[in-house]
Write a structure and sequence with these properties.
By secondary structure, this protein is α/β, with parallel strands linked by helices. Among the domains are: about 140 residues, no CATH class; about 90 residues, no CATH class. About 45% of the residues lie in helices and about 15% in strands. The chain is built from 19 helices and nine strands. Strand 6 and strand 7 form a beta hairpin. About 30% of the residues are buried.
Length: about 525
């Protein structure tokens, strides 16, 4: 750059008018060169520079054609569709994973769906583990005469399967124990001659989910919970989870089975969303925020609603309908938000001052005199009022609205004067204050209320990093699974409950067709 900030601060319209033609031409040439260089820097993106793909805003679609499945696969390692609903792997999928691990992954031909192709032969499990236990699921009583069965009743196994699971250690015996139990179902013969047969329970089908809830699964509840922890909390892709389980626990599971486990957990906890929504609507103070999210090439938004005991996530469009499904239209509590206009329908709304301070600080650093003066004025007003609010919290009693009424009146006039300012950022900030005046300065009437939306932004921060790693999700079911598991995990963490033990209990209950146990209250 030819001109520095110190030089630009001195260049304004009167200065240019006072220059002669040669000097004006010289300054114009320097400004033109700097403008072109700035525009070239502004237009840099991952396709025309060395900037990483993660630098793209989340709402920007992929640079490849939508039919290019190779590009889609590369953008979403978390949602590997090479899943088999029966939990079986295939040699083609394993070869593909080996190539990826070696860094020599070959893209699929255009128009070819990733993963196992329809009609290709599958392969059963080749790993043979020692049996650590055997569980016989006998009938408790005769289905005909109602006589109760004791342990001596004749039991004839008819079907069975193996379940891999883990048991958590404790302070006396830390670590993980891997179990491979044989589950047997069959006939129990009553003295009356009737044969009562047991079969694995199944949760009623749900059209919104293509994964089944049943005990007839290779992976047990606690191992499913561990897989969810590795995926959601540790941000590992399906192939990396497969690698970890193989090398650390000597468990060889296909990426399809791992993918199925995560979605099964999402379906298992789906009824808990109603509990969380009910608790949110009863809360007196909510922190709400949203950030961009991509579902394949579709631009969506990840919303979070935070209370002192709940963190609820929803992936949907950035429209008022999304937030209305959570809060309804008659929510009467306080909500702390940013300046997005869909929140204006709620009366008791608070505005985050951190956003306003950032914008004011940006104008303070402007190279134009008028925007800089407005930024200084705005920043001084906000910092003065913030200091007064903090003092009022320590020593309540002062009427801040009355004390600072002249300051607010003067600042309102300043914002009105800049309603049609030629500088875009100045104009936008002035109108933002006037549109949300009551929401911004309502905290002067209630100094005990929060000034920032940090609660929601800190909750989103972790998942924003996950989004940069996995590039979002690929299917509506994947999006719903992500939001549901994130809600349960963060709600348990807010209540200081072990999320993974609780998740395993929910999966176990739901596999047997029972209702999901509610999330316990804080300890």
């Amino acid at each position: 750059m030819l001109l520095k900030d110190h030089d630009l601060l001195q260049i304004d319209e009167p200065y240019l008018n006072a220059l002669g033609r040669p000097q004006l031409l010289s300054v114009s040439v320097k400004l033109l060169k700097d403008l072109k260089e700035s525009r070239e820097r502004l237009n840099q993106n991952p396709s025309n520079s060395s900037r990483p793909p993660s630098s793209q805003p989340p709402w920007v679609g992929p640079d490849v054609d939508e039919d290019d499945e190779a590009g889609k696969e590369a953008r979403d390692p978390q949602e590997n569709d090479a899943s088999n609903p029966d939990g079986k792997g295939d040699q083609e999928n394993q070869d593909q994973e080996a190539k990826e691990a070696d860094g020599s992954r070959n893209p699929s031909p255009p128009g070819r769906k990733a993963g196992k192709q329809e009609g290709s032969p599958g392969h059963g499990r080749t790993q043979k583990l020692p049996i650590t236990g055997e569980v016989s699921h006998r009938a408790e009583q005769c289905a005909a005469c109602g006589r109760g069965f004791d342990e001596d009743a004749t039991f004839v196994p008819r079907t069975g399967f193996f379940v891999l699971d883990i048991k958590l250690g404790n302070e006396e015996s830390p670590g993980l124990d891997v179990s491979n139990e044989k589950q047997l179902y069959g006939d129990t013969i009553c003295p009356c001659g009737h044969v009562t047969r047991t079969m694995p329970e199944r949760c009623p089908p749900d059209s919104q989910w293509n994964v089944e809830l049943t005990p007839w699964r290779l992976v047990g509840p606690m191992l499913v919970s561990l897989i969810c922890c590795l995926s959601m909390r540790m941000r590992l892709s399906r192939p990396r989870i497969r690698e970890l389980l193989s090398e650390w626990l000597s468990l060889r599971l296909s990426t399809g089975t791992i993918h199925q486990c995560i979605h099964e957990a999402g379906r298992a906890v789906s009824p808990l969303e109603e509990q969380l929504i009910e608790e949110v609507r009863k809360s007196k103070l909510l922190h709400i925020d949203e950030t961009g999210w991509k579902e394949k090439a579709k631009a969506l938004w990840l919303w979070v609603v935070v209370t002192s005991q709940v963190a609820l996530y929803v992936i949907g469009s950035r429209k008022s309908e999304t937030i209305e499904k959570i809060l309804g239209t008659d929510f009467s509590g306080w909500i702390m938000t940013d300046g997005y206009q869909v929140y204006r329908q709620y009366t008791n709304r608070l505005r985050c001052w951190t956003h306003l301070l950032r914008k004011a600080r940006g104008l303070k650093e402007s190279l134009d005199e008028k925007p800089r003066a407005f930024g200084v004025k705005t920043y001084d007003v906000l910092t003065t009022l913030m200091e007064a609010i903090y003092q009022a919290r320590d020593a309540p009693g002062e009427d801040l609205c009355e004390t600072y009424a002249p300051l607010l009146h003067d600042f309102c006039q300043v914002c009105t004067d800049h309603w049609d300012a030629s500088h875009e950022k100045t104009r936008q900030l002035a109108r933002e204050f006037l549109h949300d005046w009551d929401a911004i300065f309502r905290v002067l009437e209630h100094p005990e209320l929060p000034l920032t939306n940090n609660e929601a932004e800190l909750m989103l921060r972790f998942w924003v990093i996950s989004r940069k790693i996995c590039y979002g999700t690929r299917t509506p079911q994947g999006s719903r699974t992500f939001a549901l598991l994130a809600s349960v995990i963060d709600t348990c963490r807010k209540r200081e409950i072990n999320a993974w033990v609780y998740l395993a209990s929910v999966i176990s209950e739901r596999r047997h067709g029972r209702i999901a146990p509610p999330i316990p209250s804080a300890i």
